[in-house]
């Protein structure tokens, strides 16, 4: 698997799937979640509401992942994952690692050959970029599922990109 870290807008990633740093309600929010919902158009919210009315009545658990179509995005699929919120005392790194491995599992089930991740739980959820990058890179490099050719970490700012580049270099 080829792994890349780049600065950019995940809604424009040229991958089969992009990962949404969602909230447990799956109904949109701020940051990456809001940007993905905006770029995908209103059908994404409808699809998320269907999930809430059927398979995820109580929302999505922290560390889990589920997919919807990408609708107006270049990506065919959006894989929604809920990262742990450090500001609420969710400090278990295995929950954060699970966001990445479960997203890869879902991507593989869909037949995706490429996937783009944001820095799940960095930013508003309070995890330091150095921790997120280390945990994310370890989770992706340690994942042993069906072949996914390319994983990209598409990061919004230079500080987070620098953390991911350092994690990939070690």
From TrEMBL:
Span of domain Macro: 1-170
Chain segments annotated as transmembrane: none
Source organism superkingdom: Bacteria
Pfam families linked to this entry: Macro
SMART domains in UniProt: A1pp (SM00506)
InterPro entries, per database record: Macro_dom, Macro_dom-like
Record-linked PANTHER family: GANGLIOSIDE INDUCED DIFFERENTIATION ASSOCIATED PROTEIN 2-RELATED, MACRO DOMAIN-CONTAINING PROTEIN
Protein's UniProt name: O-acetyl-ADP-ribose deacetylase
Annotated source species: Myceligenerans crystallogenes
